[in-house]
Amino acid sequence: MSDLLIELLSEEIPARMQRRAADDLRRLVTDGLVDAGLTYAGAVAHCTPRRLALSVQGLTDRSPTTTEERRGPRTDAPDKAIDGFLRGVGMTRDQLDIVDDKKGQVYLARITRKGRDAPAIVAEVLEATIRDFPWPKSMRWGSGSLRWVRPLRSILCILTNDEGAQVAPLDVHGIVAGDTTEGHRFMAPDRFRVTSFDDYEARLKRAKVVLSSQDRADAIWQEATNQAFAAGLEVVEDAGLLAEVAGLVEWPVVLMGRIDEAFLGLPPEVLQTSMKEHQKFFSVRDRDGRIVRFITVANRETADDGATILAGNGRVLSARLADARFFWENDLRVAQDEKMEPWIASLANVTFHAKLGSQRERIDRIAALAREIAPAVGADPDLAERAARLAKADLSSEMVYEFPELQGLMGRYYAEAAGEAREVAAAAQEHYSPLGPSDDVPTAPVSVAVALADKLDTLAGFWAIDEKPTGSKDPYALRRAALGVVRLILSSQTSANLRPIIVRASRQDIEWQRLKGRADATRKAPSEAADATLPQQQLQHASSGDDCEPEEYGAILAQDLLTFLHDRLKQHLRDEGIRHDVIDACLTGDRTDDLADLVARARALNAVLATPDGENLVQGYKRAANLLAQAETADGVEYSYGAERKLAETDEERAMFDALEAARPKIDAALAAEDYPAAMAALADLRGPIDAFFEAVQVNSDNAIVRRNRLNLLSEIVRTCTRIADLSRIGG
Amino acid sequence: MSDAPRSFQEIILRLQSYWAGKGCAVLQPYDMEVGAGTFHPATTLRALGPNPWTAAYVQPSRRPTDGRYGENPNRLQHYYQYQVLIKPSPPDLQDLYLGSLRAIGIDMDLHDIRFVEDDWESPTLGAWGLGWEVWCDGMEVSQFTYFQQVGGHDCHPVSGELTYGLERLAMYVLGIDHVMDMPFNASDATIPLTYGDVFRQTEEEYARWNFDTADTAMLLEHFNQAEAHCAEILSRPALDPKTGKRIVMAHPAYDQCIKASHIFNLLDARGVISVTERQAYIGRVRTLAKACADAFLQTRAGGWTDAA
To answer: Which of A504, B44, B57, B250 could bridge across to B296 with cysteines, CB 3.0–4.6 Å?
Structure first.
């Protein structure tokens, strides 16, 4: 048994690639070793800005000798076949054995592969790994043709056992593997020899390199929080930044500095974003949440305890924040003096999508839609429209141009500065939400109206130009938008029929395209213009002629889009433990575009299905439905004339009549009140009578009148059971 | 630090003498308006082909849209870049570079130098490379790039390119907050001059011209002429009928490409180029750059040899 240590020392590796590269190194090397017949006990990979390292413990010293038997053609087969076999196994005819087989006598090749020593295998595997390493972006340097993320400078590759360390015989484009490495670029640049992984890690530490990125991150975080705490302050957590900074240093030294008073009037988010994006600084806040200090992580210790480094970083930050303040003050002027109008006007020059027009045109559509949605979500239509008109104004501001990630938030600040209503300002920030499955959903009615309008216009627009998501491709994040619609509706308890709203959105988009198509047609050759107005293949018949009204294919698009929303809804509810088939069962009737209602029914059905009554009810229902369907097919009649109690012959039959009689008003009342649990409970009450009925009653009686009456009774059971959901769609 | 430089020009002189000492040919600025030192044919064209090359030079660079009438502490429409190009890139290029920082008075034991990922791409030159921006105490002081492609051609061998933004670097080294306050020559010279004494007025004049006065119709015409002439130059057969020599006119053609690129920048500053047109203009300049690169590879400097 040996332990293997590999280190690939290069010029600085981008921080964002390090973690993945370490994992790839571990996977590729260990897979290669195993494929070559070695086994190992464990493997750990590490990364720093200049090195990828891999430690493999308990590696076998030799691959085993193996023999493979391969059966060939019959001994009397044509020479051609036998020669082909010989080529395949790389042997001559006299090296083959002959054995008996069902087919007769056949040739047998016994191929022996001699075991090989670990160092040779390691060298081979590592060379292949380096040559084919899956860097997201790689480069050449000097006169060579080797590719690495940045120039590869040295390779350390040793196998260590009780007798000592042995270098694997490896030469990659003139870089010969050895048993030495370098320390910190500035603090301990000399080369030194290592004998094992433990020795390597310890010597690196003495040479001012912390090998483990986790250790570096932990040390940074601990030191940062300590320094902040000592000053009565708190570091703003940022796991992504911490990981990145840990990838920029081999020897982290945490330094905390002050932010010039002159900049403390900037919104805290602006300070934080500017410091993080440009300088990779952590923000430090006081008890009031104001950001008052920064933390930078240097890569070295200095004789002046970092004073020069801190002063330099402070000066760079001041220059950056002077820019930010310049943007902020210019933007505030536009907001206060001109009510953001120039921004909105200039959005006419910003293309949203070539086929969907400018941001400005899109805002007009969203505003109209927000107005329409407003009553359903309890928002004031005027406020909703105003909010929609202003919500994207900040995209033209200088601050958002500099820091796109501040979109929405700046809109809120600027709308407040412009004296807009509180709800309108909030919508500027909140209408983008929810962005992901775990993002908060806005609850303020105006925000909900604008958020819904924004997402529905996006969906309808891309549907109209046939840019729907396919497979894993969803470049416009339409699945996310649709899930956003679902979550907005569910969390705001909005009970609204979506269909007319989607139809309206689609119609707006189609109308817009048509106008644009006409405008284009006056400039372009007629054939080209016709192409530009064809939004979707399946709609060609509808869109190619002027006789077709937008309503017609607006409705077709709306149905398709609604199905897409239902799919998102199913996924969303699966996390809640509601099965696909339960939702499918509820997708009946004419209210499937009311997602809140749909979900209420699905939840009620799901709850009942979890009880024995519910489960048996479904069985009883299916039995009734099957019998009825068979009889209707055989007789060519539809048994829906109403059953008569007086024709009932048995108590169970009569009890069934009574139970239906009793259930119907209860179900009606519950449905009228949209109390689906009560409706389901009333339905579940039928389970006993239905079971008893099937137990005792032979539906296919010899008496034709009795039989017909019973089939009509089944029909009533089926119709009653499907008042809330189509139970036949329940699986199992 | 007794070794600290005292003026802008001293920093330039030290860089010149440092890189001269490392064997670079110290060239002079290219005599045309360019947006960056990379445009100098000593970089763009010499990065192509198999021949070794090593050069260092100051290049005045013009970015019309960055003009601020001399008021912004560190934005200028005319500034200086220091440019080093070595082909093939030597294995110790990072150390050579760090040596140049020491030469201008940056004490490696007190400062925090970092190589932070920054991939370089020039859509107008059809060029890209991988490397870093170099940070000194959190400030970007240089770009460090290994050229992978120029003018659409893979670089074999690869050149290492270093670009220093001289004003910013000097301000940092000299501890100056506003570029116009920076001593250009030594402050105890008989006639001491600041950067502002030399450039404040021209920054004002050019900002006004760039933003409001440059004749856009004329510039558009010049752009079209430069484009057409570049193609015309390259369309001539290699054999010069007058001398009977093989003369591929890669450099004169490339001058027209540089001209077109700068005119595009001026038009951009005048705000007459829309977002969609922008891409089209960049594409037109790139077409010229690629054609010039193709032509350069047909010259001796580009590695062409008589097949016979």
So the answer is: B250
